[in-house]
Structures are given as C-alpha cells and as structure tokens.
Amino acid sequence: MTTTVHTRVAIVGAGPAGLLLAQLLRGAGIDSIVVDSRSRDEIEQTIRAGILEEGTVEALVAAGVDTHAHQVGMRHDGIELRFDGAGHRIDFADLVGRGVWLYPQHLVLQDLLATLVPAGADIRFETTAVRVDDVDGERPRVVVTGPDGAESEIAAEIVIGADGSHSVVRRAMSGSRAGLYREYPFAWFGILCEAPPSAPELIYSNSPNGFALISQRSDTVQRMYFQCDPDVDPASYTQEQLWEILQSRVPGTTLHEGPIFQRDMLQFRSFVARELRRGRVVLVGDAAHTVPPTGAKGMNLAIADVLLLHGALRAFLLENDPRLLDGYEQTALHRIWKAQNFSWWMTSMLHQMPEASDFDRMRQLGELRSVTDSRAGRTYLAEAYTGWPLELGG
Ligand code: PHB
C-alpha cells in the first residue's frame, strides 16, 4: 500500500522559484508541500548565479522573505563592456533609473528557508520526485521516494514543476517533446578566488582570445569566468595558467590575483519548454526555460514566473476563477522570449565562435560600438539587464 498525503499545491523543487511560491501561497493561506532530492545543506551551499534585478529584491521583501540582500548584497548601478582594449560603462541609473543587486543565489535560498522553515512550512528534503501520475486528472499525484527509500505519493489540486532543467514534472507532462532549444559551442570556466575586487563593477569583456566576466562576491572573494571548450577538465589547469588566461581576456585592465579555491564549468544552452501548463500541472523557472548566464537573467526569470503564477493560483484556488491560470503560459512566454533574445544577444556579441572569420570579428566590434556609442543602444541593454516591468496578465 502506498501512503498518500493530500495538499492543495505540490511543488517539486526547493530552488528560488519553488520556495518563493511556497512563501507566497502561505501568505494567501494556501497549503503546499515542497519536495527536493537534495539536502538542506546542499541547497544552501551550492554556488550559482549572482545578480538580482531590483524588482526581484522588491518582490522578495514584499513576499515577507527575511532577506539580507540590502545589507549583505552590493548594489550596482552599471556594468562595463570591454572590447578593443577599452572599457565602456553602461550607466543603468542614468539610462533607466534602476540598478541590480549582486547577491548570490545560495544566500537567497538561505533567506527563503530561514523564513519558511521556522514558520512550519512543509519542505521535504532528500525526497526525490520519481514521476507524476494522473497528469490529466483532477488530482494529479507526485510519486516520491523519501530519505529512507520508501515510496509515497502527494496528491494535489495543482502540481508545480520547479525542478530545474532536468525536470521530472516536465517529462511527465510532455514526454520527449521537450521544447525549443539551441546549443552553443562553448562553456564558462568559473573560479572563486581570495582577492580584492579588480573593478568597482562587473566587466563583460570581448577579447580576441574569447570572453571573460569579472564578477565579485565580497571585498575579499571574487568570482570570474572565461569562455572555454565545453569538454575541458577544470582540474587540468594550474592556478598560474588560469590567471594567465583571465589576464589575457581583459586587455587594458590588470586583475588582482589571489588563491583560487573553487573551479566549476557552466554549460551553455537556451531552452523553452513546448508547454508551460497542462491541466493542473504547471512549470516555472529552469524547468520551463534555460538561458545562458551572459545576461544574468536565470534566477530573475524564475521569480517573474512565480509572481505571475501566484496571482493565477490565488484566483483559481480561492475564487474558482481559472482565467489567469489559462493566460499564464502566454503571458509568461512574452517575458521568457524577451529574456531568451537578450541572453542570446549578449552571448553572441561577447563570445568568439570557434569558426569566426576576420569579417565576423570586425562585425562584432561594430555591433558593440553600435551599443556603446548610442544612448538608445545602451538603454536597450540597461532595460533588459535591470529587468522589464512585470506584466501580470488578466
Ligand atoms: C555571477 O557573479 O555569478 C554572475 C554575474 C553576472 C552574470 C553571470 C554570473 O551574467
């Protein structure tokens, strides 16, 4: 006999999207159960994205999340685009009157869990969603295995797939008809090092040797990335080699070097699921879409999905009004495809394609100049990077 527990909303995935949705539903008096295959420790410690749009931070605060973004995070009012040996500042504050916060995703997750767990939210760690049964029914069920390996199921009025790019919920919904995607012939090699910041703001650098991003974490820890072959083994470089590569990718600037204590690889992919909703099963965040990290949109897009969906779920579950839920996919896709375009554009403008000709490289510099030389060009970048206003449908 399989044990079945009942809840109003079953959320698969305790990432930023799943946890924020649980918090918003709790505020509306709607019960949910969140499951995640990882331990709390793993969720809270894994290094991921770093940039929050101002609107994302405001949404966390408005949702009652006890966030430290304003205290611990660093506000950035611009970025530097670097190419052809010179830096060009994109001044967000002047162009669009908004900025972003550098506040790493694992701290957002710590804030969410520190708010939800003491409040008694039902979050089940080390609990793996195996499949979703009765996807087309009135009461779909998430079949899970717990930390002890025992199988049970969660029956809900709504099932949410917030379970990342390898989503089990998406597979249950759409099978192998996953979605639309494109691959890229490169990846990012990421490092964390102990050093002071090399620049006041992030540097996105197009160099003849390939792209580099000089980001930050604190006054003493820095995050940097460089474009590399996707098959590279991160352990195969010495620290000296890594610094040599990084320095060569930001000509005109000297980086402050220090001990590198973590290295990782970020694979590049753009993806949008074919369906974001089927009956009572809905996808949010990376389960619904993946963007390459160049536009810093990933976590922000996940939060935007949830803000939209939360209103739709309130109307559906509390007032029996399905209209917003029926419009969720179309409204969410407007923002998702704008973010896909921006992330693809930043990626294509800043990276070197392995087969690029001299013509391609000179055209790319022309494209970068069209952006930095023109207020309209800089404004498009600033609007997209700091985040478009939320469209709430209806
Ligand atoms: C980061 O700091 O991890 C980061 C910042 C900006 C990006 C991607 C990653 O576009």
UniProtKB/TrEMBL annotation:
* Annotated protein name in UniProt: 4-hydroxybenzoate 3-monooxygenase
Q: Where is the FAD-binding domain?
A: 7-342
Coiled coil feature spans = none
Q: InterPro entries under this entry?
A: FAD-bd, FAD/NAD-bd_sf, PheA/TfdB_FAD_monoxygenase
**Which key words tag this protein in UniProt?**
Monooxygenase, NAD, Oxidoreductase
Could you name the domain of life of the organism this protein comes from? Bacteria
Cross-referenced Gene3D superfamilies, in alphabetical order? D-Amino Acid Oxidase, subunit A, domain 2, FAD/NAD(P)-binding domain
Question: Origin organism of this chain?
Answer: Microbacterium protaetiae
PANTHER family linked to this entry = 3-(3-HYDROXY-PHENYL)PROPIONATE/3-HYDROXYCINNAMIC ACID HYDROXYLASE, BLR0106 PROTEIN
Which interval of the chain is the signal sequence? none
Q: Name one Pfam family in it.
A: FAD_binding_3
Q: Which NCBIfam families match?
A: PRK08243.1
Q: Does the keyword NAD apply?
A: yes
The answer on whether this UniProt entry bears the keyword Lipid metabolism reads: no
Q: What molecular functions are annotated in GO for this chain?
A: FAD binding; monooxygenase activity
